Amino acid sequence: MAKKKEAAKGMKKGRKTKDSLLAISMAFLIMFPLMYLMLPTVVFVFLSMLPTLVSLIVDTSSRSKLKYKWLCIGGLNFAGTIPFLSRLWFGQNTWDGAVGMFLSGGNFMIIYLAAFAGWVLYRCIPPVVLGFLEMADQRRVGILREAQSRLIDKWGKDVAAEADLKVLKKKTVTAEEAKKQ
Questions:
Q1: Which backbone phi and psi does 72 adopt, to 5 degrees?
Q2: How many CB atoms are located within 10 Å of the residue 116 CB?
Q3: CA angle, corner 47, sides to 43 and 51, nearest 5?
Q4: What is the distance between the alpha carbons of residues 93 and 110, in angstroms, rounded to a whole number?
Q5: Which 3 state secondary structure label does DSSP give 137?
Q6: How far is residue 48's CA from residue 108's CA, in Å, rounded to a whole number?
Q7: Core-most of 44, 147, 161, 172, by most CB within 10 Å?
Q8: CB neighbourhood size of 149 (10 A)
Q9: Quick one: which H or E segment has residue 58?
Q10: What is the mean pLDDT of each run of 10 residues along the chain (181 residues)?
Q11: Are the C-beta atoms of 84 and 70 separated by less than 8 Å?
Q12: 39-48 and 107-155 are packed helices; what angle lies between their axes, rounded to 10 degrees?
């Protein structure tokens, strides 16, 4: 019985490997001719999205598979690329035109400044959100302490442990005081 399960797992694993190889080969068969036909677009997007590529390679912020730096930088980097990409498509759509458009008139500065804005958002937004969450947690602790003190007033000090009484003696923020702040 156990041998049958192991054999079935081996077949499934082999099938998954074959399916993934088939999917990868089909993707290359489709993408390679498209890349050749759209070479100016590929060159322009590659040059424009270099900050995203670098942030994807260099991102060591997390040991998990989810790395958000390249997503934040890449989103704004791509948003800065789109207007120039449409100009390329409806203008001079050649390899020289793509490189010329990237290097001319500060277009690369606009594209890279958009990537820099993504980096700034990546660095600035988490502390702001953390501050708001900390304030909300402090307000919640104040409300719970107020409710706890009302319960002690109603039921007596026998229902509270000594540690709870020591904590309650400290100055706690009530819900009304938190609303005023």
A1: -70, -50
A2: 16
A3: 145
A4: 20
A5: helix
A6: 7
A7: 44
A8: 16
A9: helix 50-58
A10: 52 62 85 81 91 87 72 93 91 86 88 94 91 94 88 79 60 56 53
A11: no
A12: 50
